[in-house]
Amino acid sequence: MLLSKWTQLGTAFLLFLISTAAAWYEGSQILDNPWEWKYSAIFSRMMNGSVEQANDILPIDHVVYAAKFLPLFPLMMFFSGMYIIVLLSSILFRRNGMFTVLLTSLGLLLLCGSSVIANSPTVGLKSFHYCFLLLGLAMLSYVAATKFIKPHFTKFNENMLNEDEK
Known about the structure:
The protein is mainly α. It has helices at 2-27, 37-40, 42-48, 59-69, 72-93, 98-116, 123-165. It is built from seven helices and no strands. Helix 5 packs antiparallel against helix 6. It starts with a helix and ends with a helix.
């Protein structure tokens, strides 16, 4: 079983690397669009203060640009990255209960991120909004189902079996 999880982890990591390279390549279009530097070169402006020429743009802003306008590969990056995080967490923390805490935290963080980009005018960030929202709700639903509903359902079934035996 552990080999299966490591195979999944390797596959997800490979998909993450490929989608990162593709998103970086697609996002390099930002270099040809100086009017977009003010809105999409977020990390470059944080590091350099202002963006005056294409050489001032950091590679991470290529991914930001791709996420806004060409979201396929950035979404693949996001999902494969989240899969890596959840899978590693399930391997490392499943036994001591920290997995539930991590999933709850990730779910809440995704819901907050969804609300931050909810009013974005670009098609890419709208896609991210819905993905963050759905994945955050899915994580919180999983935690609720496994920690709150399943124990009560199991106890209910045990009570029903005990009554049948009487």
